[in-house]
Backbone:
């Protein structure tokens, strides 16, 4: 019988061990930095009622209209895999009265997979991963600037080169309708020159015309009215204070009046961090303000500001200086020669690990030194400990550094001292192997 091979679904990918290390590097740095700014992690379900996303992201957006993985469960409820994180976080905030638990300003972060039925290409997948953070309960522009400062710290920590901050304001319920009317009029006056998608968007969601990637639309878009010229005075003031706070913090930015995001809930400040290294899918981070989203979801009035960054894209721009060290394997590979030495190594491995020293060994007894050295190389061990029959008797083994072949005789105690002591690596009292 011959079975055909089953492969991962188009637009999804396996993140293999070496790559996972890079992901962890980004995740660990994000956790560390978010916690410096007093954010707490929240974990919400991977699927929700479809209505949650339809109402918050917007019925007419590409995400909801074309890209959601929606299905009916056995109870005939329409559910969707989450295409982004903000809607779920705001739902959870309302549902659990998080303001009472975490204080007047809730600072939350999340990380995990999101799902959109998009056309896969480099940096764009159908299952992709975001790290996001949300601040709920403040309308201050300084909060926005602080969030961006936190992101810059993360970029800095990971040595991400050539990232650029783009900012815009989309106005609010007072000034946006007027702007949309002028946009509609302006596009409508030359409708036949726009691509079919824009012709449709001009009716359903005119802001999205500004976001069209079609070459032939670009010169037309450049001449459309700018949202920044249409801001009402409270929105203008908010945006000016946001910019001043960025400047106070020494954070460079570029105004990008065509920056509209693919989600309807944004008001006032929106931003992106783009990288020149990424090609067409150049947005590393996207975010903005979403006052009013809580009310849309049946909650109390709560102001909100947040962002999401794409992990796949972050990993693509990590410089080699950061990823190089991640390829290292265990501290030491144990290479016994002979049965007795092999038995000894089983116990030694336990003792090393209990002290927090990572080690590996060949499970097959009786391998030659040559083949064990090869194995050590494959697992990228930093050192090899060679234990021959004679050495077993003397208690002095040979420690060899893989990078340059440097070696020295060493005892078991010497080995512990060489790699340790590792803080917190004390042995549990209910676990005392006899070896
Ligand atoms: P958004 O939720 O659309 O505002 O996107 C925020 C960030 O998520 C983007 O800047 C990207 O880094 C990332 N992202 C969005 N969609 C995808 C996708 N289909 N594949 C990979 N990353 C994505």
Residues:
């Amino acid at each position: 019988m011959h079975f055909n091979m089953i492969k991962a679904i188009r637009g999804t990918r396996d993140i293999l061990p070496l790559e996972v290390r890079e992901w962890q590097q980004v995740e660990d740095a994000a956790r560390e930095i978010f916690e410096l700014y007093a954010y707490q992690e929240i974990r919400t379900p991977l699927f929700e009622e479809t209505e949650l996303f339809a109402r918050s992201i917007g019925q007419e957006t590409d995400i909801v209209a074309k890209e959601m993985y929606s299905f009916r469960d056995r109870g005939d409820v329409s559910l969707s895999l989450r295409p982004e994180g903000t809607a779920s976080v705001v739902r959870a905030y309302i549902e659990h009265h998080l303001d009472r638990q975490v204080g007047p300003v809730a600072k939350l972060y999340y990380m995990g997979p999101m799902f959109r039925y998009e056309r896969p290409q480099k940096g764009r997948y159908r299952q992709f991963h975001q790290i996001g953070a949300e601040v709920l309960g403040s309308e201050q522009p300084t909060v926005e600037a602080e969030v961006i400062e936190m992101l810059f710290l993360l970029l800095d920590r990971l040595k991400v080169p050539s990232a650029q901050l783009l900012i815009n304001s989309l106005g609010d319920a007072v000034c946006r309708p007027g702007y949309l009317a002028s946009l509609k009029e302006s596009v409508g006056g030359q409708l036949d020159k726009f691509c079919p998608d824009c012709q449709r968007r001009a009716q359903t969601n005119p802001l999205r015309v500004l976001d069209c990637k079609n070459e032939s639309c670009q010169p037309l878009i450049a001449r459309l009215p700018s949202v920044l010229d249409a801001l009402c005075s409270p929105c203008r003031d908010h945006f000016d204070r946001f910019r001043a706070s960025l400047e106070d913090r020494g954070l460079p930015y570029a105004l990008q009046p065509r920056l509209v995001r693919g989600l309807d809930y944004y008001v006032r400040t929106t931003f992106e961090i783009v990288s020149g290294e990424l090609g067409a899918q150049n947005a590393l981070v996207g975010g903005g303000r979403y006052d009013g989203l809580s009310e849309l979801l049946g909650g109390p009035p709560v102001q909100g500001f947040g962002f999401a960054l794409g992990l796949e894209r972050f990993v693509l721009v990590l410089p080699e200086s950061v990823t190089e060290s991640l390829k290292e394997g265990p501290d030491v590979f144990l290479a016994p020669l002979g049965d007795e030495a092999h038995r000894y190594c089983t116990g030694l491995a336990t003792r090393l690990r209990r002290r927090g020293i990572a080690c590996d060994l060949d499970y097959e007894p009786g391998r030659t030194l040559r083949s064990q050295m090869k194995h050590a190389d494959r697992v990228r061990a930093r050192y090899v400990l060679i234990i021959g029959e004679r050495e077993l008797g003397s208690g002095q083994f040979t420690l060899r550094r893989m990078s340059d072949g440097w070696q020295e005789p060493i005892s078991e105690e010497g080995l512990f001292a060489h790699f340790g002591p590792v803080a917190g690596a004390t042995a549990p009292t209910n676990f005392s192997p006899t070896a």
Confidence is low (pLDDT under 50) at residues 423-435. The pocket of adenosine monophosphate is lined by residues 84, 116, 118, 123-125, 128, 130, 261-262, 283-286, 308-310, 312-313 (CB under 6 Å). Residues 17-175+231-322 form a domain with the BirA Bifunctional Protein; domain 2 fold (CATH 3.30.930.10). The first strand starts at residue 40 and ends at 41.
